[in-house]
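User: Structure please.
Assistant: Input sequence and predicted structure:
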Amino acid sequence: MELRHLRYFAAVAEELHFGRAARKLHISQPPLSMQIRALETELGVKLLNRTRRHVSLTRAGTAFLQDAQQILERSEQAVLTARRAERGEIGELAVGFISVADYNLLPLVLREFRRQYPLVTLSLKESTTDAQIADLLNSRIDVGFLLPPVNEPSIESVPVLREPLIAALPERHPLARRRGAIQLGALADSPFIITPRDMAPGLYDDIVSLCHAAGFSPQIAQEAIQMQTVVSLVSAEMGVALIPRSLQNLQRTGVIYKPLKDTSPMSEIHLAWRRNDKLPALQLFLQLARDIAATDAAKTPPKAATRR
């Protein structure tokens, strides 16, 4: 028994007329009648009562129609599922991200991807840049939001966010009371909180270079792996920090965010994936992230001071 036999029978059962069913199936009537009789012979039951003017379902035909329709519906769903899987609209995608991305681009991309491709299961893993590179190399994640540089030839990356650095100050710091932007050199005597260089060499070097350009070497009092921890230590009055601008979206009591008068290097977040990885869901994710990044590229200027 083939699926076409079920389609032929279902069409006749729905129309209760061989001529109309044949037209619906785009075949002639005699072959249709022959296929129905062949189906009845194979099953060993009579499915239809036929007269010159009337066609009706037998009891066996009524019971068989229900299962036949379910099989046809499932076969159509199987075809649709296979096509969606080929396009990447069904499946799983493992996404790594640094904590900073959670305050800017990541929520936008995740929300829109889930809206457009609800049948793709997203598995999220927050980790540092170096850990994400290891996870990509070992196929534990498929794509990651991380800090440059990425010096692995088997990993490709593109920038999806560029933003300036700003200062995070304890609210009782003398410069916190000033209006507007501040000169970085005014923080020369303040202890700094910074991410370790082995965790984020690009960001670390940008901060140190910016301080050198302002005429001083930062007094590094504390190191913290996660940016949320950096801001928490600022709140605890352990020191000041230079952080990507979007971190001012982090609600933290006792911290004031200030833009810098100095020309700041642009902090970047990159999207990284294994070079030549053709996973369909990954290609959809990359395209969507790029589109959202391009739309979101024109950021509004930071406020002169934001009290949290």
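The CA atoms of residues 2 and 157 lie 49 Å apart.
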